[in-house]
Amino acid sequence: QVQLVESGGGLVQPGGSLRLSCAASGFTLDYYAIGWFRQAPGKEREGVSCISQSGGMTYYTDSVKGRFTISRDNAKNTVYLQMNSLKPEDTAVYYCAADKLHYVTTIQPMCDIPDFNGMDYWGKGTLVTVSS
Predict the structure, then answer these.
(1) Which one of 7, 8, 17, 119 is most buried, counting C-beta atoms within 10 A?
(2) What residue spans of 5-116 are helical by DSSP H?
């Protein structure tokens, strides 16, 4: 079955850390740029961080720069999002998405002006709650 599955969400106190995983099954992640997106209650889905097929290009939205790190292990068919110094405003459902488009000079458009309907695959999301 072709799918993306997110895991690693949960309840964490402000200042804490979580590592999200996005695992692909039924297809090879090597050929896809991967983005992490989040949607908080009552808000639109937004791009958080994106990574190119090789991992050579990454992008972070301003609100998570210096706190989140995206990485990929193509041998494990998995992409990770390490989230440190979590804040209550990071509370959201986090989704990963796969895009077969090759971004040549920057991966920023995948996150900043995402074509949600154009992504090849979406996961079902994992809930992150940051609260004391």
Answers:
(1) 119
(2) 108-112
**47 bridge partner residues:** 37
Which contiguous run of DSSP H or E holds residue 23?
Answer: strand 18-25
Contact 87, 14 (CB under 8 A): yes
Q: What is the block-wise mean pLDDT of the chain (132 residues), using blocks of 10 residues?
A: 96 98 94 97 96 96 98 96 98 97 91 88 97 96
Strands 126-130 and 58-60: unpaired
CB-based contacts of 69, cutoff 8 Å, min separation 6: 81, 82, 84
Cβ atoms 82, 19 nearer than 8 A = yes
Distance CA 130, CA 105 (A): 34
